[in-house]
Amino acid sequence: LRDPSFVAEMPKAKLAVIGYPIKHSASPQMHQAALDEAGIDLQYIRVEVEPGKVNECFSEMERLGFVGCNVTVPHKLEAMELCDEVTDDAQALAATNTIHFKDGKRYGHNTDGPGLAQAILEDFGKSLTELRVLILGAGGGAGRAIATQCAREGSSRIYLSNRTVEKLEPIAKSLTDDYGAKLVYTLSNDDEALTIAADRVDLIINSTSLGLKEDDPLPIPASALKSTHRVYDAIYNPAVTPLLAEANKIGATTSNGLSMLLHQGAISFAFWLGQKPSIDAMRKGLGK
Ligand code: ATR
Fold first, then answer.
1. CB-ligand 1 contact for 27 (6 Å cutoff)
2. Are residues 32 and 101 in the same domain?
3. Global pTM value
4. Is residue 102 flagged as an active site residue?
């Protein structure tokens, strides 16, 4: 760990999020609130770990009796390669965002996909299985997790869009070859193609970074949105992105990435501690 004396002063620190950089992670507030609510006397901390130093960090955590950690950018692949066993979810993405240290072994999991699935089910009352989906930014890290989850759940049609369309070919191939997805289409982010695809789906998910900044353009033309659409934006800050504002205006059903953040966190919590956390406490921990 970056500063062992820091941990020595925090004997209850047994969970953490590691990344580089890590200052802005919201995971500590979220998980600490759930731990406190459940009466579990442990502390969840942030640890900055340089690339290439993940093994060292894991060994130190094991020595200190850590229960586990979350793993964020850029360590998700490096962490997976250091695990003794990984779940199918982690295998599917060749990435882990959750590690559990138990009986001298390292177990890796990826809760991003299952977290999204749970968020869609709760926010829209439908499972991904029942929905035809258009994923904007499917070539990015989050988009790939979302696309893979759609394929694993058997979404009946999957449209993958990305500014850099070349990134989509290997992803589409994996959805088809590894998960048996039948109707997978790839498209660039041009207005006409997006409009045609949008007309053929029930759910539109934005996983591009467009919407993080106030003056960002929409990731899809406003005219492509219909009142029957469910529109999910993986961004949660701002809570209402320009895309969600447009979708709300025409009466579509909308939700933002806060639910995905909460549910992936809740699944990690259960993976470590064998019990479900309070989602309400986690939401309050985030100040939402
Ligand atoms: P994350 O891991 O959070 O998904 P990422 O991997 O950097 O972040 O992905 C960002 C996504 O937003 C990508 O799909 C990116 O498209 P490219 O693959 O072409 O880079 C998309 N994106 C970023 N800026 C964009 C823009 N101005 N217009 C359209 N798409 C954009």
1. no
2. yes
3. 0.94
4. no
